[in-house]
Design goal:
The complex is a heterodimer of chains A (40) and B (204). By secondary structure, chain A is α+β, with helices and mostly antiparallel strands. Chain A has one helix at 33-37; one strand at 7-12. Chain A is rod-shaped. The longest helix of chain B has 30 residues, at 173-202. Classes of the chains: A alpha+beta (40), B alpha+beta (204). Chain A binds chain B through residues 1-15, 17, and chain B through 5, 7-16, 20, 33-35, 47, 66, 90-92, 111-113, 116, 128-141, 143-144, 146. Strand 1 (7-12) of chain A pairs parallel with strand 1 (9-11) of chain B, so a sheet runs across the interface.
């Protein structure tokens, strides 16, 4: 087991890691064609 | 009672880079010599959260990391009085004072680190630690870990093979020690080179 020596200090960082890549932008959902077909 | 010295707390916006060792067993990357805290299957790019290796759920822990301890029930279930919980991801500093061009004799002062390097560990990994990180003399212990890179270390497999097949029993002593020295030196040199690269790129 790794012996890493005596403790010195505590560092708190963000609990959730910042993602390296930007989130993928998804296109807006297409309009529902079936609804358009139904006559009023 | 567990002795607890309360340490100073700091805050950092960035994760902390460090390195550690892994080896390959049954095509799974695993750490060696870690009886607790490592129950994961490791992959490059993976994010991991520390768990207690004594198979006692979160319910049986008291306090907050790194001052965690097992409660009375947990101690009973384990059958021994070990009240301090040592879960977490352990890694070494990228700026270890023994790195660089320091002669091998100087490095031997850090025995566990050297032992780690010369056992069956086949990979060194660049990791970043986040969440709550306990900083120590030679490394860190953290609640969360992300693996950035996994680099195979060439000669350590041979060292393991040598030990398994007891080459020392049938080779002359002088030949055996010369062989080992050569292999160890090569392995160490490779590891130091890699860690130096990481230190220049990621540290400070």
């Amino acid at each position: 087991m790794a012996n890493i020596g005596k403790p010195k200090r505590i560092i708190k960082t963000d609990p959730i890691r910042v993602p390296e890549k930007a989130p993928v932008e998804r296109p807006a959902p297409l309009p529902d064609k079936e609804k358009e077909k139904v006559p009023a | 009672m567990v002795e607890q010295t309360v340490l100073e707390e700091f805050w950092s916006p960035d994760p902390i880079y460090a390195f550690r060792f892994f080896y390959n067993r049954n095509n799974r990357v695993e750490p060696l010599n870690t009886p607790f805290a490592d129950k994961h299957v490791y992959e490059v790019g993976g994010d991991y959260e520390a768990v207690c290796g004594y198979d006692i759920g979160k319910a049986h822990h008291v306090g907050e990391f790194p001052y965690l301890s097992h409660d009375a029930l947990a101690n009973m279930r384990n059958g021994f009085a070990r009240s301090r919980c040592q879960q977490g991801f352990y890694a070494y500093r990228l700026d270890l004072p023994t790195l660089g061009n320091a002669p091998l004799e100087n490095m031997l002062t850090m025995k566990s680190y050297i032992a780690d390097m010369l056992t069956a560990n086949e990979y060194i990994a660049l990791v970043s630690l986040y969440g709550t990180v306990l900083e120590t003399e030679y490394g860190y212990r953290a609640t969360n870990m992300h693996i950035h890179e996994l680099v195979s270390v060439r000669y350590n497999k041979f060292l393991l093979w040598f030990t398994r097949h007891r080459l020392s029993d049938w080779l002359p002593d002088s030949v055996y020690t010369a062989l080992c020295d050569r292999l160890e030196y090569s392995a160490l040199r490779d590891i130091y080179k890699q860690i130096e690269e990481w230190r220049k790129e990621y540290y400070g």
